[in-house]
Give the backbone structure.
Amino acid sequence: HLGTIALGFVGLILLFILTSSYRIQRFLNFANPWNDGLGGLGTGYQLVHSYFAIAHGGWTGAGFGKSIEKYLYLPEAQTDFIFAIFSEEMGFFVVLFFLLFYLFFLWRILIVTFRAKDLFAKLIGIGIVSMIFIQAFINIGGVIGLIPLTGVPLPFISYGGSSLLLNCLSMGIVLSISREYSKQKVQKMLNETKAITNP
């Protein structure tokens, strides 16, 4: 049954791609952005300049604020392609640290989530982790050419009001879950102390 569902899902994705010319072009750009008929200056322009930005950063980066691609070369540098600009300015080592920090951040949210006694709180926490991880994967994957570009912002990093507001609200929920666990832990310790002092 799972194989049939998977085949149906793949079929729907192919149908979704093939029914629109711009989706077909986006998929072709993902496969080879230089093969857009203009040597990377047509529809593959964004991805090509994203590659240039990452390559220019090298191991140690061009330096903070010294990106070349963000000045009229890479469109939407502050939103969709902020990871490429960050890579250009900071370099491979800082980007690697940034990605590890992202994973550590999500892992800490998961720890807070699984400590919660309430099933609803656990489900919300898992949903928040999934939302942040999927958005980050889609953004970074699109910028480095791992998946087709979609225009999804990078959580907590991309410029934008609604995305940042939603992420901050999500962190407020996580903090609330953590606070509830801390309250329960303190109450348990108080009860144990009372039981010891008043046998």
